[in-house]
Amino acid sequence: MNARVADDDAYALDALHADGCAIIEGEIAHRRSRPAVHAFRYPGFCLRLPLSRLAELPRRGVALNRAGWVAFHERDHGPRDGTSLLGWIRALLDREGVAADGEIVLHAFPRMLGYVFNPVSFWVAHDRRGAVRAVLAEVRNTFGERHDYLVAHVDGRPIASGETLEARKVFHVSPFCAVEGRYAFRFAFGADRWLARVDHFDGAQPEPLLETWFSGRPAPLSPRATRALLWRYRWFTLGVIARIHWQALRLWRKRVPFHIKPEPPAKVLSR
């Protein structure tokens, strides 16, 4: 009894830190401005996972690298070969000259009932003082392809909440958007709110063609919370796939121009 209370207190404390284990629950939204106005939003969630603490997941109700109702598999991310994600991302940051020697926190969907699809996952890289030095946006499309955008200041200074950083769009995601223009990334890293916003500017107008965001608040990642997550979101992965195709049908019916998928970029990382 006392041990359970202590664990619950520890789970709650974790959720109060931006680099602690948590469930982030909120809304996923998308707004298109042209050539036809199109918007949607729906409830969603992700897990906030410090990579140095993945071994804690089983006692928090999330299966690690094995089958489970709610599970996290390292092979779903990064090199996708089941090797250590922490070692992989640290090597990547070292190659890119990013001085992030603190915690690295992955924001991603888990497997629900054995299935997962992450259109985008965000790896937040901190230094030892807790400042954010870089964010890796790991993007996947429905063709099984992946591309990583490394978002960081050229001079290496920390990224503050609310700052906008840009990257050239080089990867095909939607057949209703050409592979051109730039992305504007903006994040909120606070302990009480997570925001990941990505706007697509195609260069035709100063306003973004697309605005997309996930915004939510942290809650403790505990066995009880994981069971509740399964009850509310057990069909979440199938819902993500279904919504992608449903929104594509709606865009097609609005006669938004369709673009044939080009070959993926030769390099899997850009910045």
Explain this structure to me?
Helix content is 20%, strand content 34%. With 271 residues, the chain is α+β, with helices and mostly antiparallel strands. It has one domain. Strands 10-11-12-13-1-2-5-7-8-9-14 form an 11-stranded mixed β-sheet. Strands 3-4-6 form a 3-stranded mixed β-sheet. It starts with a helix and ends with a strand.
**Run of helices and strands:** HEEEEHEEEEEEEEEHHE
Radius of gyration: 19 Å
Shape: globular
Number-wise, the strands total: 14
Q: What structural class should be given to the helix and strand makeup?
A: alpha+beta
Topology record:
Blueprint: H1 2-15, E1 22-32, E2 38-50, E3 63-64, E4 70-72, H2 85-95, E5 104-108, E6 111-112, E7 120-126, E8 132-140, E9 146-151, E10 164-168, E11 182-188, E12 194-201, E13 210-220, H3 223-233, H4 236-253, E14 269-270
Parallel strand pairs: 3-4, 9-14
Antiparallel strand pairs: 1-2, 1-13, 2-5, 4-6, 5-7, 7-8, 8-9, 10-11, 11-12, 12-13
Please give a quick description of this structure.
This protein is an alpha+beta fold and 271 residues long. It is built from four helices and 14 strands.
Comma- or semicolon-separated keywords:
three-stranded mixed sheet; 4 helices; 34% strand; alpha+beta; eleven-stranded mixed sheet; 271 residues
